[in-house]
Amino acid sequence: MKSKTNGDTKSLLILGTASHVGKSAIVTALCNVFSRNYRVAPFKAQNMSLNSWITKDGKEIGIAQAIQAKAAGVEPTADMNPILLKPKGDRQSQVIILGEPYADKTAGEYYDSIEDTHEILKGSLDRLSDEYEIIVMEGAGGAAEINLYERDVVNIGTARATNAPIILVGDIERGGVFASLYGTIELLPEDVRKRVSGFIINKFRGDPEILNPGLEELEKRTGIPVLGVLPFSSINIPSEDSVSINDKSNNNDSSNDVEIAIIRLPRISNFTDFEPLEKLAKVNYVDLEDNLGNPDAVIIPGTKNTISDFVDLRESGMYDQIKKLHGKIPIIGICGGYQMLGTKIHDSGVEGEQKAEYEGLGLLDIETIFDAYKKTTVQTTKTITCGGPLLEPIKGEKISGYEIHMGDTTSQNFVFDDDGCMDDTGLVFGTYLHGLFENENIRNSFVRYLCEKKGLEFKPQKIISQQEAYNMLGDMVSDGLDMEKLYDILGIGSGKV
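Structure for Probable cobyric acid synthase, as requested:
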C-alpha cells in the first residue's frame, strides 16, 4: 500500500509508547491548531473501540476521529477511520469497513485477511489528500509491538504507506517515560525509526525544569528533539474508549449530592453519553457484582452485545437490585439498556450463538427482535412527546442524537416522536438515542427533578461547548510545544502561504 499523501498534502503521524498516553487528545489539539491556517483532516487506519459516532451519511466511525474532525472544523467522514473493530467478547469483534458492518471475526480470522485492508486504507488516504492540506494521523496502542509488525496496519503500516514524519508520545504519569521512549525507538524497524522526528512527553504534573537533564540525555542518545512537555489536563473532551472508565472512579467534578449510577456492563459502549452529567451530579459506574446502594437514578447504558450483557446482568444479581428500585427512582435505558428494560428479547441467533427468547426486566411494555445482521445508524432530531415527572417541563421541545443499534423494538408509549417508551409512572423510560444528555433541556430537566426530590436547589452549571474545549486544548498544546520546529518537520510555514 502506497498513498499519494507525500505529494502536495502534508501528513504527520502521532505514535505512542503505549495505550492511553494521550495520542487522541494530541491529535485533536493539533487538528485544531493547524486548522487555523490550513484545511485539516484526522486519520486512523484502524480503531478498536466501543465508543463510536455516526456521520451525517449514516456511517459508523470511532468517536475519537469524529472529535478530531470537529476540532478541525470539518465534517467527520468514514475515510477518517476506514476500519473500526468493536469487540463483542469471546475473542470476536464486529468489523466495520468504511462505516458499514462487514462481519464478525476472531482476531485470527481478521489478521489472516489483513492484506485485503491495504487498498481500503490507501483509497481513504487518497480521497482525504484530494480535499485537505494536512492529515494528522494517529497510531494505536504502543508503536513497538514487535510481535505484530507484519500485520500492524495502524502504526507500522501507516508509517510505511505515507512516509510521514512521526512524533512519538510518552506518558510521564505512568513512570519510566525516558525508558519507554528510548526503548520504543530501539525496537522500531529501521525504516520507520528514521521517520521519528520528535518526542512529546505528556501528562506532567510539576516543574518541567527538573526534567531538563533527562531531556538532554534522551536527545543526545537518540538524536531526536523533544518538542515539549505537556501538562496534565482536565479539559473535558469525550473519552475515546472504555480504558477511560477506570479514570472516572470517584473522579467527578460536581459538588452536588445527587448520585446517578451507571451500570457498568461488561461490553459497555458509548459511555460518553453520560459525561455531560458529570458537572451536575456524582456519576458512578457500578460493576455487576457490586452493591448498587441508594442512588437517586439508575441508567443502563448501551452495549455491543445486548444478549450477552443481559445474561450477565441477570446472573449477577444486579437484575434484582434494579427491579427493587422500580417506582422509587428514575430508571433509564439507552440503546441496549432500553432493550433490556422490556418484557421480552427475541434472538434468531444474530446476537447470541443460537435462537433463544429472554424475559427482560419487564419495566417497559416493549419487545425487541434480533432477526437480521443489520444495523440502524443515523443522526436524528426529534420532539419530546411524553411528559411525566422527568420530561413534562420540556414536552414539545426538540432534541438531537444518533442511533447505532441492531434489533427492532415494538413500542406504544413513545418518548421522542417514534422512538423509545415510557412507563405509566413516567419514572422509567428508554430510547435508542445516543448523545441524549448533550441536550441541555434533557440534562437540566432530569437533574432538576433529582435535586428537588432530595430537597436540594438545582444549580445549572455552565458547560463549555465542545468547540471551546477544542480551542482550549489546542491553545494548551501549542503553548507547550515548539510549534516552529513542528511546522518545520511538516515542511510548511506556521501561517497560511
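The longest strand covers residues 196-204.
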